[in-house]
């Protein structure tokens, strides 16, 4: 009689049961991919993944997803508390009920995959503590940059390095709008309307155009890069609603382009971090300047690895679902192997410095009187605040006279005070444009 195999028969392998919270654009793609590639996922994980329930607001609504309608439920709390749920995917967004549902899932021993940037930026520490306490995984690659792998490289690949700066375009809507303003000469309102028609912007675009979405992502990236707790409220935030055609033309004259940038950087002495989101001019030969349409890209500078750039589709159902399912495979493998993934680390506990301490440059356009002494009075305003001028040029004459000033780096509060002083000068009719400048070096 031959020797019997000790390997369990495939039919005896218990599948891992997955609960999905939310079935909107991203959730629908998650379901479609899970069902379509069921065999592939089983091979990658080592056991089948079984979709055990889908929590939605309205169970009777028709949905184009290839699953049994009986899987839909409006009782999300009961779904995550079921004793047989191994993995929970949260793609409903917002703070509540997402936070309570994720905490309940973790308390019941389920590992969680989420795309919820707003929640992670506001109360990620509570979620990570719960995951640690209950021995479960909490993964969130899809929370920043859609399909672009950003979280894992920062959390794992660069764990042995010292990140100095993270600079990126992390909101596709604003990048599309600014790109259209630059390449087509489109006005802000028209470009935003086109973004809405193409599905890049919501009916209410406030979170995007006012920088809230980018600020939440910046907080997450900063926390990972610098191993410290950073909240969305710590991030200096400015949107793009005040960017004008004059700003776009001024940038072009300098050989620059305007982008909404998320910037997180370690202070020179390593004692703190600065995190900010605002429009800025960057040189057209900078890698981020070529990021077009609704694409995202993040530039990472570290001590050993040097400069790294991550680029790709930053939003949309399929790209975000790709990131969600990548995390799902990882946490499922961990579950099969009785292991846990790398936890978020906040050991450094660095101070988050206020924006006023950040070293920046400014590009300032002034409508001035075309007479003797104007340049001297303008230069004196910069000198009073200790801000060094890099270049100054005059455009036009008479009533059309404009001075364009580009500064060297200085504390942001000093630059802001300089702008206030300029507005008080009799020879300055109007400060027509104020824009920070990034990527021109450190001096």
Keywords:
443 residues, alpha/beta, 12-stranded mixed sheet, 6-stranded parallel sheet, 14 helices, disordered N terminus
Biggest sheet, open or closed, and with what strands and sense?
12 strands, mixed
| Structural class determined from secondary elements | alpha/beta
Contiguous helical run count:
14
Beta strand %: 15-25%
Q: Which spans have pLDDT < 50 for at least 5 consecutive residues?
A: 1-10
Radius of gyration: 25 Å
Tell me the layout of helices and strands.
Layout: E1 16-21, H1 25-36, H2 38-45, E2 49-55, E3 72-73, H3 76-81, E4 87-90, H4 98-107, E5 111-114, H5 117-134, E6 138-139, H6 151-157, E7 163-169, H7 172-183, H8 188-197, H9 206-209, H10 212-226, E8 236-237, H11 245-253, E9 256-266, E10 272-283, E11 295-302, E12 306-313, H12 317-336, E13 351-352, E14 359-368, H13 374-384, E15 389-395, E16 402-407, E17 410-411, H14 412-424, E18 428-437
Parallel strand pairs: 1-2, 1-4, 2-3, 4-5, 5-6, 8-10, 10-13, 10-18
Antiparallel strand pairs: 7-9, 7-11, 9-10, 11-12, 14-16, 14-17, 14-18, 15-16
Helix pairs in contact: 1-12, 4-5, 5-10, 7-8, 13-14
